[in-house]
Each structure stands twice: as C-alpha cells, then as structure tokens.
Amino acid sequence: MTQALAVVLAAGKGTRMKSDLPKVLHQLAGAPMLAHVLMAAGSAGVSRAALVVGSGMDAVAEAGLSVAPDAQVFLQQEQMGTADAVKAAAPAYGSASGPVIVLYGDTPLLRPETLRAVLGELDAGADLVVIGFEAADPTGYGRLLFDDKSRLSGIREEKDATTAERALTLCNSGIMAFRSGAGLSGLIARIGNENAKREFYLTDAVALAYQDGLQTRVVLSNGEEVLGVNSRSELSVAESLMQRRLRTAAMEQGATLVAPDTVFFSFDTVVGRDVFIEPNVFFAPGVVIEDGATIRGFCHLEKCQVGAGAKVGPFARLRPGAQLAAGAQVGNFVEVKNATVAEGAKVNHLTYIGDASVGPKANIGAGTITCNYDGFAKYRTEIGAGAFVGSNSSLVAPVKIGDGAYVGSGSVISKDVPNDALALSRPKQEERLGWAEKARHERGGDKSK
Fold it and tell me: Is the pTM above the cut of 0.85?
C-alpha cells in the first residue's frame, strides 16, 4: 500500500465557524485541522496526497503543502457535493492501479491505526471500504445499509432515508477507500444527483459497487475519532478529546501529571520518562522534555528543550530557542528566549535571559536582565562557567562575563569581565548620621506616630 493516495477534501467555507479563516485552518493542539489529517495519512503509510480546495483558498493549499510538500492541489470550482469534489482530483488518480482513500480536512481526530485497517482490507481483496461507527443519536448522519447476507449494499443520507432506515444506528463517517483509482473513476462517472439536495454524493458509489458485484466492506471506528468539526463549539469538543489522548499517551510513556485536565499539550510535544508536570502548564508546539525533568505549575513553554533532570518554574516562560541542559534550573518568574542554560546552572528568580549563553554551574541572581536589544538589532550575552551575577544586574549586550567572574549586585555591565574578576558598577554608598532625625524635627515631628 506504499503507493496509496489520500484525496483530502478541504474546500468547505465553514460558515458556521463565523470566521474569516478557512475552517480547516482552525487549530487543534497547536496545528491546523488539515495538518492533523495529512499527518495521520502519512503515519498510516499513505505516500501521496491530493488536496481539493475552493476558490481563493491559497492559505489552505500552503498549509497542506507545509505538511505534505509533494501533494497536488486541485480546485473545486463549485460546491456540488462530495463526489464532485473527489472528481476535481481525478488527474491525481485517473487510471492509476493504486488505492485511493478519501479524507476530510475537518476530521482531525482520525487515527493512523484506523487508516491502516482500511488499507489492510483493500490489500485483502476489498474493492471499496467505508469507515462506520455506532451512534447513540444518529440524527444527521448517513446510514449504512446491508443485504440479507450482511454485505454492505449502500449508504442512505438522512434526508433521503425512510423511517425504517432512520432508525438504524450504524452510521457513515464519510471516509471511503477504493482498491484502485481506475475503479474510483468508473464509479464517479456514474453518480447522479437525483436526491433532495441535488448534489453528487460520493456515498452513492457504495450502491453502484454493490450492484457490480464488487467487494464492499466496513471498518468500524468510534464516533469521537471521525468527529467532523463545523463550529467553534465542535472545535472545543475536538480539542478536549485530543488533549485527553495526548495526556494519556504522556502518562503511558512514564510521565506524571499531577492534574492532567489542567495540562495542555501540542501535537508534537515530546515528554520523556519520569517527567513530573505540575498543574496549569501549557506546551506550545516544538517542546522536548527529557527524562526526569520537573515542570512546576503555571509554566508556558514553546519551541524549547528541557534537559534530563532540569527544573522549570513555577511561573516560568521558555520561549523559542531556549535550551536547558541536564540539571539546569529556571525558577519562578524567569523568562528565557533563544538562550542556552548549561548543566547545573541556576536562574532562579525574576530574571530575563535572552540571546545568551549561561555556562555550567553559573548562578544568576534575582532581577538580572540581559539587555539584548538596542531598538535596531539583537546582541548576545555570554556568561562563563561558574560565574556569579549578583541580583538586580543589567548585562548590556554584546558582553562576556568570564569563567568564575563575579558581578556585584545592582551593576550595569557594558564591558567584558575577565575570568575570576569582580565587576562593580554602582555609585558609592554614603551615610549622613542623624539626618533622618533632623529632617523629622524640621518637618514638625514624625507624622506616622
């Protein structure tokens, strides 16, 4: 099945989303719904993709190509039904002998395992395979029909169904696969629009294949996996289901989530074994957490890496490019951006480390700021191994703090500090004995008493 083709229908306008953004570009776990569909197909071993978009949907095409660079993009001129949409991609399958599976850009929860089961049925001799599911409330779904020998004989859309057919609970997900592109082409050419909506239904291919004596089969799924997203409310449901899936996977792989429902992962978050995650943590895309790390509560991480045994938070923010080595510590109200914090280094309180490198076992005091931007360009700060930067210091980049060097608290450092040197940059303190008592007397006594 390595030459299988996924035809992904993504031309829907999604008017119920009430958005200027095309429906399939709304995000789920940090990626557009369309991306989830394409990634599932790729993970299932489907090597080719054809994307069907509507007029003016260049952004949809770009999003699809960012996930599947070799995908072909086709335009559905008018929305005249699912069969018409599939027909738009005919140049991709035409007379091809390889299998074709029709997917939808708004079903982001589809699992690769289910797609592999579908392809397995085709490999075992089926000519047409439908993914079906049992629904407690089948209202709105097409129903799967069977003959007296339990062979799939057709799909009836609800608007065209009889009362008896509407009582059926085995429903059509819309996802359908064909043994060959040539077979799909032949069926598509015979589909008419004699129905309540005067559209060309891909579902009619089932009855045509059955009449031709072809093998038609069903792969069962669950309603959650094939949930179609048509509104903001349904998007929130899909997000909840996806997060539950991601949390379960993290825990099954050896992570501890103290309050799972409060932790939000992205589709690509990597969490190692014995990672400990406290409540209210958000992982944006591109995060890797290595074994044994601790992420304390109320942290936000994005496009960063946390090394083995490192500790982050609480209330810390790791921005893109932050890299924490093994055993590093980033504490409360610390922000790290495009910077490396080496093994054993500590940045524990109220600090900004941007465009910088912090050496092994260095200690950065509370309130320290790397001043990396002068209004025109960004510059780097280099802090050496074992260096100590006192609280409330400003390091004006570009600048280097040498190995083992000390920076006195409250300093503004704008020149390089040699190894093992002490750098101080603050006014000399002076005391005026008795000044406070004299001032109070002159002002009529201590008003606070």
Answer: yes
